Amino acid sequence: MRKQDSLHDGYAKHNIRFSIRKKILMLSAAAALPFLLLVVYLVISLTNYSRTYDQIVSNLTVANNYNLNFKEEMDESLYKLVVGYVTFDNISKDDTLKDPYVLIRELRGEFTKLMDITTEIESKMWLQSLLRNINTLEKRVDDIKESALKGGMYNENIEVLDKNIYILTELIQDDIQYYIYYQTKSMDKITDTLNKQVQDFIFLCSIIIVVLVIAVSVTTWLIASGIRRPIQELYVATEKVAEGDFSARADVTSKDEIEVLAKGFNNMTENMQALVDEIKEDEAKLRRVDLRLLQEQINPHFLYNTLDTIVWLIEGNETEKAEEMVVTLSNFFRLVLSKGKEFITIREEEQHIASYLAIQKMRYHDIMEYDIQIDKVLYDYQIPKLTLQPLVENALYHGLKYKRAKGYIHINGEKTGDVIVLTVRDNGVGMDEEELELLRKEIERPCKETEKGFGMANVNERIHMYFGQEYGMTIRSKKRKGTIVEITIPAIRAEET
User: Residue 296, Cβ neighbours under 10 Å: how many?
Assistant: First the structure.
């Protein structure tokens, strides 16, 4: 209940005057109402027909029953009364005969009821004739009864039977048959009327269907357009947002749920734009932090070892070498700092590596040789700062240092299409498959979560972040054969940054 209340409150707040639900319900009502009226009309017509038809059938059943039996029963009973077979007093005791007065009373009662409910003129006329003949018949029966009570009037009573009774019962039978005939005709008229009503209904229904099809089509088109246009507007704005244009807004004034949705979408894109800007700023900060972490990792122990070497050279009176090493160290740190830039040229990266290796060569001259062969075509292309130094350091400290013999570090760079490939190769101790797979997993993790290989993971993470997942680092190695680390980055000139 709370959910529904909050939903209704939200609708009211956004001023939904003509919701999609209302539009669909109105369209459904407009389409269904005419058909409902037609159905009601047809049901009423059929009900009236059924009621009238049932009444006529009931009347015909009553009339037909007397048509078949009345004359025969009346004639036989009166004849046996005249010939003295039975008397008026004991005729009711004979199961094969019926009291004439009872027959007349029943006939008059039934046809009086029919007279009250019959509306058709011809049928009513014959009912009136029938009731008059019943009255006359009753008088003639009275005459016979009176004669029977006097006795000795057999011939007169037989004559009454022949000239009056039989003729009257026949007339009554004719009246009943004519009544049945006109009731049957009345049934035909009712059926014709119903058929006409059905035909009118079909015709009217056809006209209404045609009008409804046109009206519903037009109304549906208008309602569908009213729904489709704002949805299209919202769709276009969504496509723009999907392409990265967070300034896109959906201009919808349909006064329904779509307008509410559009307003929510516009608010969402505003928030998304703010979030994207905030994320970009945070990413820039994180990149600077990660780079600083890498620099801080390099600087202390490298500076300590280098200064130690310089002291050792001075103590050994090798002042020229010590002076050369101080100059090289100065160049190294100048390139490390690079005025706070995140990107430098490949020329600067090569100078940085050369300074680093020159310093390390003075310390590890007995175990290390190196060679740098970077195509000069690459010099004006950009590269993230401190990309090669962690790889070279890793080759020295984890490859050559444990070889217990002189080793070799080779650095190569070349351009292939729109991609720059930089390779650091050593012939150090190398790794077996298990160690290699572990290192590959480590460098794919965020550098802050790595247990080892922080520098390499940092380089790989920054390349992914700057250029995308299709660029980065690959490692190949064999035990006691050495290791090859390959960096791929897009070829982007420094002035294009």
Answer: 9
User: Of 418, 436, 448, 433, nearest to 474 (Cα)?
Assistant: 436
Sheet containing 482-490: which strands, arranged edge to edge?
Answer: 368-374, 407-416, 419-426, 482-490, 472-478
Token pair recorded at residue 147: 């004669």
Helix, strand, coil percentages for the chain (3-state, nearest 5)? 75, 10, 20
**Nearest to 235, CA basis, from 274, 265, 273, 271:** 265
Buried b (16+ CB within 10 A) or exposed e, 7-43: eeeeeeeeebeebeeebeeebeeeeeebeeebeeeee
Is residue 462 over pLDDT 70?
A: yes
pLDDT in tens, 296-345: 454 455 665 666 566 666 766 666 766 776 776 676 666 565 555 678 89
In Å, the largest CA–CA distance within the chain is 188
Distance between CA 138 and CA 133 in Å, rounded? Answer: 8
Instruction: Take residue 14 and report the two structure tokens written for it.
Output: 């956004």
**270: how many CB neighbours lie within 10 A of its CB?**
13
Looking at residue 396, what DSSP letter applies? I
pLDDT at residue 424, as a whole number: 95
Using DSSP's 3-state secondary structure scheme, residue 65 falls into helix
Residue 352 has pLDDT above 90, yes or no: no
Virtual torsion, Cα 347, 349, 350, 354, nearest 10 deg:
140
Whether 383 contacts 343, CB under 8 Å: yes
Q: Are the C-beta atoms of 374 and 413 separated by less than 8 Å?
A: yes
Mean pLDDT of 414-443: 92
Distance (Å, whole) CA 112 – CA 102 = 15
Exposure class string for 393-422: b at 16+ Cβ within 10 A, else e: bbbbebbbeebeeebbbbbbbeeeeeebbb
Based on its alpha-carbon atoms, the radius of gyration of the chain, rounded to whole angstroms, reads: 59
Using DSSP's 3-state secondary structure scheme, residue 377 falls into: helix
